[in-house]
User: What shape does this take?
Amino acid sequence: MKIEKSFELARPRQIVWEAFGDVHLVASCLPGASIAEELGVGRYKGKFSIKLGPMAAAFNGEVAIERRPEEWTAVVSGKGADARSSSRANGSMTYRVSAGEGGAPTHVDVVSEINLAGALAQFGKAGVISEIAGRLTDEFVRNFEAKLAPAEAEAAAAPAARIEPSEARSLDAGNLLWTILKAKVLGFIRRLIGRPA
Assistant: This one.
């Protein structure tokens, strides 16, 4: 499954690029994500927890990050498995950071390829994963902007200051499923009403 998303951050490109290089900061802004261990040179053990209605999954796996500063691009690849639901996931994400007019806002384009197997794969077929990705992106942007503001103030006072990772909380997509179902039913009703007799 291919998912393409774009968003803007009200910060200069260089600041965004450097912040994206802090894997602990990025994980702390992404609901459900956490870094458990550094394995060396761009490789990490991580976890992603999600709740879809009555089903909960915690994917444990490995992530590799290849940054290409000359292209302002990075490729993040990973794989993981959830022992409880026997679900597996693997995929890659490529992001490109572009400067806006006058240096800000910074434009970020993200292309993800995600493969799901097991119990959670059914949600991919229903388009739920794409909807979750959209909501997840919106929340990431809000969290990232909020964490970057105090970090910039700290960096001005003490350049060596570093943001400490916060404890991850599981992504609860239960309400999202209800929202999607409601939107589909309302759309169907509107099409019926608008259809000529």
Notes: The two ends are 38 Å apart (CA to CA). Confidence is low (pLDDT under 50) at residues 158-168. The chain has one domain: 2-194. The chain has five helices and eight strands.
